[in-house]
Predict the 3D structure of the following.
Amino acid sequence: MSRTRIKICGLRDEASVEVAVACGADAVGFVLVPESPRYIEPERAAELMCMLPPLVTAVGVIQNLSVDEFCDLEQRFPAPLMQLHGTESAKTVEACGPGVVKGFRFDATTIVDELARWDEIDEVDAMLIDGSAGGAGIAFDWTQLKPLLEPIRTPIIVAGGLSPDNVADAIREIRPYAVDVSSGVEIAPGVKDPHRIEAFCRAVRDADACADG
């Protein structure tokens, strides 16, 4: 099995970026949604993005922007990937691609349709499945998701309520392409804990090692 990629989301300062990179994060997320406690100005996010070494990807997290608003923001923060984490239409997602991560909430009544809908769109590079609208730290039942993924070709990122304590369980259950954490490595909303970031990354690597062994 390939290793599980790690995305640390909601970073807002140099120290958190440095810790995430040092601990082995493959991607770091910058939340560009003003209502979020993890909000960062696009220009500031662009400054932090310039700190990243090669092969560590910056991801901008946005919600429900029009295509024109998306293009304006992309000029201010030209990240390689943009995570559309709202109720965007398929037409909007297509227009914003390529380089799109489509985020949506796990709902047992709609998850089959959601997976099929976004799996058909070539501009969607990955699907991020969350336990909430994003950033609330709510987990979902991974066992319900696992049997639905066999026909899906798009890489799956699991988010929502992950922490150093349970991320290994999610990896063993689903074997996702990547895992995403935000509140699970914080000491307060928007305040990252370097020790929890390190523990989260270590737990992912240990889970991979056990799966490969």
Q: What stands out?
A: The two ends are 10 Å apart (CA to CA). Residues 3 and 209 are 9 Å apart (CA to CA). The mean pLDDT is 95.
